[in-house]
Structure formats: structure tokens, C-alpha cells
Amino acid sequence: MLRDARDPAAIEAAVQALQAGELVAFPTETVYGLGADAGNGDAVAGIFRAKGRPADHPLIVHVADAAAAGVFASSIPDFARRLIDAFWPGPLTLILPRRGGIADVAAGGQDTIGVRCPAHPAAQALLRACATAQPPVHGIAGPSANKFGRVSPTTAAHVQSEFGPGLLVLDGGPCQVGIESAIVDCTRGRPVLLRPGMLDVARIEAAAGQALARPEDVDRAAPRASGTLEAHYAPRARLRLMEAGALQTALDVLGAEARNIAVWSRAILRTPAAGVVRRRMPDDAAEAARLLFAVLREFDDQGVQLIWIETPPADAAWDGVRDRLQRAAAAG
Ligand code: TXA
Ligand code: MG
């Protein structure tokens, strides 16, 4: 069931559903989340079942503000505190040491917890209403509202197409960031970037006051992060990344015979084939991120078998988009 997220009655219905241990999908500025009361293990188990996600892949917990992070985290290092001050509410998830006995199921067996304070007004309204409800819901465990390994949803309609009409979905319009939050692990003495998002790495480093390490720089075995699996975010069609020249050559080789192919490129490519679906990739990385998952779903809906995408530029602004595309390509 879709409900307008600006309707206070819809927020109230969502709070009651969460209190009753049910699942609710909600908008954030990055992607839509599939939420449950983080403090209710049975409810959170329902997220893993609905997504088909392995139980040892931890979920992040959404909170209304920095103070609520302290419900789930046992301590917050100084550099993490600076990141919170700089970027919350916003598209940044922090991995923090977990308070014993809290959100065990959401944490998937880790002694750490991912915490994020989203900026979307509907997410804020929902989280604030949850925090003041009786009994309160202090945090919403919420992975992206898609089946495990598939493309994340950036509209309420995407969520419905994943889980059907029975699920309560708060419709907050299309997500403005479009790819998932950046994840910084703050449990290893220095900040480690587990997943790039649309926050500039240089800005994160400036706020933290130190350089970001890469997971491979840190000796301890990395905790599981499904968004960091090599193959993830996959459309049904096989996705390949190619430079513009190689893409044009491939289209030229097939000529008028090309069919069941979709192309997303910044370069304007020529083909005589009517059966090739073409979309322009924006020159701006933020704009491309905003469209990315909707474009992949649109290509799948057209029934193409191949998706050919021009390799994004090498500069840091494209890190998040490049990361998602490389993982989607690895799944094919
Ligand atoms: O933008 C986002 O982060 C969205 C919206 C809904 O907030 N959520 C999201 O959740 O992308 P999900 O579950 O699809 O991705 C969260 C990632 C996963 O790769 C998960 O494994 C990792 O965060 N993660 C969660 N808790 C962790 C922990 N304690 N240690 C390491 N990684 C963790
Ligand atoms: Mg996900």
C-alpha cells in the first residue's frame, strides 16, 4: 500500500506498524529503506526473510539525531563525532562499537553497529515520531528495500515492484542522491571507507581530520558488508562497462542487427539499429547517481539482454557511481 509521506496520518500508521513488529518501507535521500524496529529481533528477522539476505550480513540502524546514536553505540571516537557534526543528517553511515544486548539481530552477529541519520524530511518525521511514541522505537533497522543483490529502489514504485502491494510504503518521491550512503568504519582506530557514496572523500577526510584508510589497508578481517561484495546491485540483463570508443565499435560490428541492447553513455553514439535503447548519461556525477538505479530498472523493464554502459570518468566525484557499476558488472 502506497501512502503519501507528507500525510501525518501516514506517518502515524507507519509508527504503529513498526511498534507492532511489522515492516515499513520509507524514503531517504539516498535510496528507499525496508524498515523494522531495530530493538525487536523478530521484526528485524522479517527484513532478512523478505530480502532473502543472509542473516550474517548486518543492517544499518536509522536514528533521528546524534543523541540517539548513543542508544546503539557504546562509544563514539572523536573523529566519528566530527563526522557526525559535519554530515548528519545526511548520506553517511558510521560503523561504531555496539552496546551489548542492543540490536543483536540487526547487527548480524557483529560487535559493531552501523548507524545513520537520514536527511529526507519524511525519514526525519518518521524517526522523530518513533522516538516519542509510547512505547518508543529508538531506531529503524533498514537496508535498501530490494531483494538481496538486486538494484536498490529510488522510488516508491520500485519498492512495490520488489515486494508487492501488501507492504506499507511511505512515498516521499524520487530519491535525490540516488545511491546508498558512504560507509565509514570507526571501530579500528582510524576511519576506513567501506563503501563510497556521494560525499566527497576529501570533505570526509577534512572533517575527520585524517586520511581515510581502505579496507585492504587494515589488517583485521573486514566485517561483512553486502554492499561491498564484489557482485551486487545487479539488473537482470548482463551489464558491461566499456570506454566510448569500444562501445561505438561494438555497435558498428552489430550494425542493423543489434537488438535487445541498452546503452547508457555520455558520448553520443551512432547505430542504425532501431532495437538499441539509448539514454544519455549526465556529465555531472551527482546527476548520474540520481538516475543510475532508475535507468537500470527501466532497461530491465524493456526486456533487454545486454546493458552497455560507458565507463565513468576516473575522478573522485564519480567514485560512488563507478563502484556500483563495477559491482553490477561483476554480477553478470
Ligand atoms: O543509504 C543507505 O545506506 C541505505 C538507506 C536505506 O539508508 N541503506 C543501505 O542499507 O544501503 P544496506 O543494508 O543495503 O547496506 C548497508 C551496508 C551493507 O553492505 C552492510 O553489510 C553494511 O552496510 N553494514 C551494516 N552494518 C555493518 C557493520 N556493523 N559492519 C560492517 N558493515 C556493516
Ligand atoms: Mg543494499
TrEMBL record:
<keyword id="KW-0067">ATP-binding</keyword>
<dbReference type="InterPro" id="IPR050156">
    <property type="entry name" value="TC-AMP_synthase_SUA5"/>
</dbReference>
<feature type="binding site">
    <location>
        <position position="53"/>
    </location>
    <ligand>
        <name>ATP</name>
    </ligand>
</feature>
<feature type="binding site">
    <location>
        <position position="195"/>
    </location>
    <ligand>
        <name>ATP</name>
    </ligand>
</feature>
<keyword id="KW-0808">Transferase</keyword>
<feature type="binding site">
    <location>
        <position position="116"/>
    </location>
    <ligand>
        <name>L-threonine</name>
    </ligand>
</feature>
<keyword id="KW-0548">Nucleotidyltransferase</keyword>
<dbReference type="GO" id="GO:0003725">
    <property type="term" value="F:double-stranded RNA binding"/>
</dbReference>
<dbReference type="InterPro" id="IPR010923">
    <property type="entry name" value="T(6)A37_SUA5"/>
</dbReference>
<comment type="similarity">
    <text>Belongs to the SUA5 family.</text>
</comment>
<keyword id="KW-0819">tRNA processing</keyword>
<dbReference type="GO" id="GO:0000049">
    <property type="term" value="F:tRNA binding"/>
</dbReference>
<dbReference type="InterPro" id="IPR005145">
    <property type="entry name" value="Sua5_C"/>
</dbReference>
<dbReference type="InterPro" id="IPR006070">
    <property type="entry name" value="Sua5-like_dom"/>
</dbReference>
<keyword id="KW-0547">Nucleotide-binding</keyword>
<feature type="binding site">
    <location>
        <position position="30"/>
    </location>
    <ligand>
        <name>L-threonine</name>
    </ligand>
</feature>
<comment type="function">
    <text>Required for the formation of a threonylcarbamoyl group on adenosine at position 37 (t(6)A37) in tRNAs that read codons beginning with adenine.</text>
</comment>
<dbReference type="GO" id="GO:0005737">
    <property type="term" value="C:cytoplasm"/>
</dbReference>
<keyword id="KW-0963">Cytoplasm</keyword>
<feature type="binding site">
    <location>
        <position position="62"/>
    </location>
    <ligand>
        <name>L-threonine</name>
    </ligand>
</feature>
<feature type="binding site">
    <location>
        <position position="233"/>
    </location>
    <ligand>
        <name>ATP</name>
    </ligand>
</feature>
<feature type="binding site">
    <location>
        <position position="112"/>
    </location>
    <ligand>
        <name>ATP</name>
    </ligand>
</feature>
<dbReference type="Pfam" id="PF03481">
    <property type="entry name" value="Sua5_C"/>
</dbReference>
<dbReference type="GO" id="GO:0061710">
    <property type="term" value="F:L-threonylcarbamoyladenylate synthase"/>
</dbReference>
<feature type="domain" description="YrdC-like">
    <location>
        <begin position="8"/>
        <end position="199"/>
    </location>
</feature>
<protein>
    <recommendedName>
        <fullName>Threonylcarbamoyl-AMP synthase</fullName>
        <ecNumber>2.7.7.87</ecNumber>
    </recommendedName>
</protein>
<dbReference type="InterPro" id="IPR038385">
    <property type="entry name" value="Sua5/YwlC_C"/>
</dbReference>
<feature type="binding site">
    <location>
        <position position="152"/>
    </location>
    <ligand>
        <name>ATP</name>
    </ligand>
</feature>
<dbReference type="Pfam" id="PF01300">
    <property type="entry name" value="Sua5_yciO_yrdC"/>
</dbReference>
<dbReference type="GO" id="GO:0008033">
    <property type="term" value="P:tRNA processing"/>
</dbReference>
<dbReference type="GO" id="GO:0005524">
    <property type="term" value="F:ATP binding"/>
</dbReference>
<dbReference type="InterPro" id="IPR017945">
    <property type="entry name" value="DHBP_synth_RibB-like_a/b_dom"/>
</dbReference>
<feature type="binding site">
    <location>
        <position position="181"/>
    </location>
    <ligand>
        <name>L-threonine</name>
    </ligand>
</feature>
<dbReference type="GO" id="GO:0006450">
    <property type="term" value="P:regulation of translational fidelity"/>
</dbReference>
<feature type="binding site">
    <location>
        <position position="144"/>
    </location>
    <ligand>
        <name>ATP</name>
    </ligand>
</feature>
